[in-house]
Amino acid sequence: MKELNFKGVSLPAIGIGTWHMGDQPQMYAQEKATILYGLQHGATVIDTAEMYGEGNAEKLVGDVLQEFDRSKVFLISKFYPQNATKIKMKQALDRSLKRLKTDYLDLYLLHWRGSVPLAETVAGLVELQKAGKIRHWGVSNFDTDDLKELYALPNGEQVFANEDLYNLANRGIEYELLPWQRQQKLPLIAYSPVDQGDSRGQNLTQNEIIQDIAQAHQVTPMQLLLAWTIQANNVMAIPQTSNLEHMKQNIAAGEIKLSKAEMQQIDTQFPAPDSKQSLRMI
Q1: 3-class DSSP state for residue 189?
Q2: What is residue 201's predicted lDDT score, i.e. its pLDDT?
Q3: In this predicted structure, what is the pLDDT of residue 225?
Q4: What would you report as the CA-atom Rg of the chain, rounded to the nearest whole angstrom?
Q5: Distance CA 69, CA 79 (A)
Q6: What does the pLDDT look like over 44-95, one tens digit per residue?
Q7: Average pLDDT over residues 145-167
Q8: Range of the domain at 13
Q9: What percent of the chain shows pLDDT beyond 70?
Q10: What is the total count of domains within the chain?
Q11: What φ, ψ does residue 2 adopt, rounded to 5°?
Q12: pLDDT at 170 over 80
């Protein structure tokens, strides 16, 4: 698995997303086994949120963590913007920690911006960090102007990562946001990194170039899409799957290295943006 340097912390380039997980009792055992397999085979970052199933995903992750060394997991969760005040954030974190059956998070993210002033949110996160309840804090669904505003605040530059939608079908952040984050050495966590293989009415996995390059590497088109997302430095992908075979494929995608020529071929099919685009969220 390709390793990344996230502000001095060594992390795998591919982690485990948990959106839509933990909601179906009949799928619970399978989902638990799939996440556990991922942890055991190097995908040691888990991304979850209080929003996912209103805590169900966190409960699932909490059960998984009972069967794996917690100290070897980089655990991420997120809080609602309405919980971004100092008091509500602490309460939300305590609820998340209880569901996750742990006493700390490795990374706590503001899920998206709301009406609470960023300065108050940052101050609350720094307090939680000093209390040892979170090791790092960050943001999600932030665009360049949001991050510039954040960096202008006291302790704002301590932000550990920004988590945004990024995949081959959604390259808008490459025009301005990604270059700015690289300049600041701020890592990106890419959610929906394969766009479920389909976007804007075009099926990415059916594209001939994608299929040809995948075949050359003896991987699936979905694996190729995932590999493309992490080719850039300081980009981590967190694909979600409840399927053990797909988990194995996701982990294997972390070993795929695309040549410059292959990246250029892909660019001809799915061009990089040539102007600023509004930040997409799902």
Answers
A1: strand
A2: 44
A3: 95
A4: 18
A5: 25
A6: 999 999 999 899 999 999 999 999 999 999 999 999 999 999 999 999 999 9
A7: 97
A8: 3-269
A9: 98
A10: 1
A11: -60, 135
A12: yes
Q: Which of 79, 112, 123 is nearest to 97 (CA)?
A: 79
Domain with residue 105: its CATH number is 3.20.20.100
Based on the number of CB atoms within 10 Å of its own CB, is 132 exposed (0-12), middle (13-18) or buried (19 or more)?
A: exposed
Q: What is the rounded CA–CA span in Å between residue 280 and residue 133?
A: 31
When pLDDT is averaged across residues 127-140 and rounded to a whole number, the result is 98
Q: Is there a catalytic annotation at residue 52?
A: yes
Could you tell me which of 155, 157, 193 has the C-alpha nearest to residue 173? Answer: 193
**pLDDT tens digits along 5-24:** 999 999 999 999 999 999 99
Q: Tell me the one-letter amino acid at 233.
A: N
Q: How far apart are CA 98 and CA 77, in angstroms?
A: 12
- C-alpha 140/C-alpha 150 separation (Å) is 12
The answer to the question of residue 145 being in a domain is yes
Q: Which of 52, 108, 166, 191 is flagged as catalytic?
A: 52
Provide CB contacts within 8 A for 145, sequence distance 6+.
none
List the structure tokens of 167: 């995949």
Q: Residue 111 in contact with residue 49, Cβ under 8 Å?
A: yes
Domain assignment present for 88: yes
How many whole angstroms from its chain centre is CA 33? 20
CA separation for the pair 51, 185 (Å, rounded): 28
Structure-block tokens of residue 108: 């706590």
pLDDT for the residue 196: 64
- Residue 281: inside a domain: no
Q: Which residues contact 267 (CB under 8 A, 6 or more apart)?
A: none
Distances (CA, A) of 231 to 16, 61, 171: 18, 28, 13
User: Annotation-wise, does 41 bind a ligand?
Assistant: no
